[in-house]
Amino acid sequence: MYNGEKIYAIITAAGSGNRMGMKTPKQFIEVNNIPIIERTLNKFYDLNIFDKIFLVIRQEDKKFIEENLSKKFRDIQIIIGGKTREESTFNAIKLLDDDGISVFHDGVRPFVSKDDIIRALDFFKGKNAVVFAVREKDTVKVVDNMKVISSPARKNIFRVQTPQIFSNKIIKEAYNKFYGKIEATDDSIFVSKLGEEVYIYESNYNNIKITTPEDLYLADLIAKEEDYYENR
């Protein structure tokens, strides 16, 4: 319960990690001696504000989770994901009550700030959709057939991250209406299609998604700094 509302966290970690090019799924790769998914779960578990934390995983990873993480994170509910990110998320959404709000997060974004989660939940008051994002540093070009079509003003461009926070009623309605009908690279696209306003919570650049081997170099630096301050 947070601010009088039930609150849920949905951590999606059902990817295979093909772009990482390793046998180990990316969510189980260790960064400074701690698996990525464990680092992510720590952030949400330590806040102690969630009525339920759902962890969406692949069927073949269930044994690893039960043997290595279930004892530490006793109250987490495991959900088996689908073939796509949207299907995995939908499997969790089906279990939500209509009341309350839910915080959706990528399992391979382990450096989200706990303070940012709390501040974003406060910012969420009176809204139905809030997404984490950072300002784009580079100039962006819209291209068609390798030809520049337009150059959007950089001040209006944000790179979307997770967490993404939604009222349960709205995200359930959005998925029930648009799942399988349009492509959505993030959940807020479905919500926008409903005509709902989506607000930006300005996050920080450390909140990276670990997807490729190059990301691991930066992740290792961030993890060492984070662990140093956590353990002082």
From TrEMBL:
Q: Which GO terms describe its molecular function?
A: 2-C-methyl-D-erythritol 4-phosphate cytidylyltransferase activity
EC numbers listed for it are 2.7.7.60
One GO biological-process annotation of the entry reads:
isoprenoid biosynthetic process
InterPro entries referenced in this protein's UniProt entry, alphabetically: IspD, IspD/TarI, IspD/TarI_cytidylyltransf_bact, Nucleotide-diphossugar_trans
Q: Which Pfam families match?
A: IspD (PF01128)
Instruction: Report the SUPFAM superfamilies cross-referenced here.
Output: Nucleotide-diphospho-sugar transferases
Coiled coil region boundaries:
none
Per UniProt, the enzyme's principal EC class comes to transferase
State the UniProt keywords alphabetically.
Isoprene biosynthesis, Nucleotidyltransferase, Transferase
Under the heading PANTHER family, the entry gives:
2-C-METHYL-D-ERYTHRITOL 4-PHOSPHATE CYTIDYLYLTRANSFERASE, CHLOROPLASTIC
Q: What is this protein called?
A: 2-C-methyl-D-erythritol 4-phosphate cytidylyltransferase
Q: Record the organism.
A: Citroniella saccharovorans
